[in-house]
Design brief:
The chain is of the alpha+beta class. 35% of the residues lie in helices and 24% in strands. The protein has ten helices and 15 strands. A seven-stranded mixed barrel has the order 9-10-13-12-11-15-14. Helix 2 (87-101) links the parallel strand 6 and strand 7. The termini are far apart.
Length: 350
C-alpha cells in the first residue's frame, strides 16, 4: 500500500506543473519528444545519464535559453512530509543532475547533437533541514519552501485528496499496488498539462476503487480550477536560490508589469525566524499588486540570530540578494521577462 506522504508528493508535483504553466513549463512525458535523451520504460520515463538511466516523475522544459548557457530542463520533485526534508533527498538530487549533465561525448564524424542544461528543484511543504540547505547551496540544487500561508489552500486540498485516495486502497485486489501512473495520467488529462496522445495508455483498475478514485480526482481538479487565476511565478534573484512568488491577484500584477516590465519595488518582512514571510509591491503604486514569498530558512535564522542586529541584517539581505528579481512568463508564443528592482525607502524618498 502506498503511504499518504507519497501520494501527497505525487499530487503536489502535478499541481506544481499546473501552477507553473504560465512560466512556459512544458511537460516531457514520452521518449518521442526527445529519443536522444529520454527512454520510455513501460509506463516509466527515464533520462539518460553518463552512468545510468534515471527515473523522473516530472520533467519540464523552459522555452527560453539564458545567455551563455544551453536550453534548460528541470527535474521537479515535491515532498509533502510532516517534517523538514533532510540531506539524503538533496544528495540524491545532486547525484542525478550531475550524471545527466555529464552524458555528452563528441567524436569525429558524429552528427551534431543538442545538449541541455539540467537543473533540479525540490519543493517542500515543510521546509528543509539546515544540512540539506547547506548542501543544496554548495551544489546548486534549488530548494523551494511552500510552507508559507500563501500556499495553505493548495496544501490543504492535496492533503485531503491524498487521504481519500489512500483510504480507497482497501478496494484494490489483495497485494495489488496503488496505480500511481494511472492516477497521474488522469490528473494530467484533466488539467491539460500534457499532450493527451503522448500520455501512457494505462488500464483502469476497475471496481469500487476506480469509482472512488475517479470521483476524488475530479474533486481535486475542480478545487484547483477554482483557483484558475492562480499561478506560481518563479523569481530569480541575484542569489543562489529561486523564489516562488504568490500573487494576491495575478491579473493586477500582469496589468502593472506588462506596462512597466522594469520597475522599482518595496520589500517588507513580517514575522520572524522560519515563520517569516516577505511581501513585495511597486514603489510608485503600493496598492497595484502584492507578491508574497519565503526565503530559505538558514537565511531567516541568520537574520533573527541576534535580536539587536535583525533590522540591519534584513536590510543587508535586501541589498545583497534581493536587489534585482527577474521573472519569466509566457506571452503568446514567446516569453517575456520582468525585472523587479528593490528600492530602499531612503532612495524612494530622495
Amino acid at each position: 500500500m502506498v503511504k499518504d506522504s507519497a501520494l501527497r508528493g505525487y499530487l503536489l508535483e502535478e499541481a506544481l506543473a499546473w501552477l507553473l504553466r504560465f512560466s512556459g513549463y512544458r511537460l516531457l512525458v514520452h521518449e518521442g519528444q526527445d529519443p536522444e535523451e529520454l527512454v520510455s520504460d513501460g509506463e516509466t520515463l527515464r533520462v539518460r545519464g553518463r552512468g545510468a538511466l534515471h527515473q523522473v516523475d516530472v520533467l519540464g522544459e523552459f522555452p527560453f535559453t539564458p545567455a551563455f548557457s544551453m536550453p534548460v530542463r528541470l527535474f521537479l520533485e515535491a515532498k509533502y512530509y510532516q517534517s523538514s526534508c533532510g540531506l539524503e533527498i538533496v544528495r540524491n538530487a545532486h547525484g542525478v543532475v550531475h550524471d545527466v549533465n555529464e552524458n555528452f561525448m563528441t567524436h569525429d564524424g558524429a552528427r551534431p547533437r543538442q545538449r541541455y542544461q539540467y537543473s533540479y528543484a525540490l519543493f517542500s511543504a515543510s521546509g528543509f533541514t539546515p544540512s540539506a540547505q547547506k548542501y543544496a547551496l554548495a551544489h546548486q540544487i534549488s530548494l523551494v519552501d511552500l510552507s508559507g500561508a500563501s500556499y495553505g489552500w493548495l496544501l490543504g486540498t492535496i492533503g485531503a485528496t491524498a487521504s481519500t485516495l489512500a483510504a480507497a486502497q482497501q478496494h484494490l485486489p489483495q497485494s495489488a499496488p496503488f496505480p500511481v501512473t494511472w492516477m497521474r495520467t488522469q490528473v494530467r488529462k484533466a488539467l491539460g498539462t500534457s499532450p493527451v496522445h503522448l500520455l501512457p495508455s494505462v488500464s483502469m483498475p476497475g471496481g469500487k476503487f476506480e469509482q472512488a478514485a475517479v470521483s476524488t480526482i475530479s474533486q481535486f481538479v475542480a478545487a484547483l480550477s477554482q483557483h484558475d487565476g492562480a499561478e506560481l511565478l518563479l523569481g530569480f534573484p541575484s542569489a543562489p536560490f529561486i523564489l516562488p512568488l504568490a500573487a494576491d491577484d495575478h491579473q493586477r500584477f500582469l496589468a502593472y508589469a506588462n506596462n512597466r516590465p522594469d520597475h522599482a519595488v518595496q520589500l517588507k518582512r513580517r514575522g520572524g525566524g522560519s515563520a517569516a514571510e516577505w511581501t513585495m509591491f511597486p514603489t510608485e503604486a503600493p496598492g497595484a499588486y502584492e507578491l508574497a514569498f519565503k526565503l530559505p530558512e538558514h537565511i531567516e535564522d541568520w537574520i533573527s540570530g541576534v535580536g539587536e542586529k535583525e533590522r540591519r541584517r534584513t536590510v543587508e539581505i535586501k541589498e545583497q540578494f534581493l536587489s534585482t528579481i527577474t521573472l519569466y512568463r509566457m506571452n503568446g508564443a514567446g516569453v517575456r521577462a520582468y525585472q523587479l528592482r528593490y528600492e530602499s525607502s531612503s532612495l524612494s524618498r530622495h
